[in-house]
Specification:
- The chain is 39% helix and 20% strand.
- The protein has six helices and nine strands.
- It is flat.
Length: 196
Amino acid sequence: VELVLRVRGDPASELATHALAVFPTHARELQDGRALRVVARVVRPELPHLAPERTPREGADFILETIRVADELGYAEAWIGEHFACGWEPVPAPDLLIAQALLQTKRIRLGPGAHVLPYHHPVELAHRIAYLDHLAQGRYMVGIGAGSVPMDADLLGVISRDENGKETMHNAEMTREALDIMIKIWTKDEAFDHDG
């Protein structure tokens, strides 16, 4: 699990100290132009980032509180991961949390890290992203990915097995196809057909 947050303006050491307190994980600070990047990675299962014993509501409350604090501390952005079958990050709809966080924050930009395209119908997701972008008034960042967690791929049916039981994930080709469709939806005025 990785959270990447950027600080607006010149980073202050006090802000970095707060970041380490907000995210009780191992972290390192990286200078990135005018922004301080704090990369926090969960490295021990006892750390409380959406631990499996949390209910979905407790996990959502934790994410929203973390984003509120990050906004108050001046962080420029936060990303919420998308997973369906992972015990440590069971967030199948990060856009729902983003919509809530937009109402509870003032400046921080928010994005899914990332919508895993093979697990969504591209037409439906393209419309959800466009709608949320309008609601966010410039504070929404779209993140897309192909997915790499076999549990999610198996659950959502994008793994095939040959006669010997060898598994193949079809995420890469499905991601390319979905992205092509979504870009057409966002950029073309005329109707189009897709044979996929």
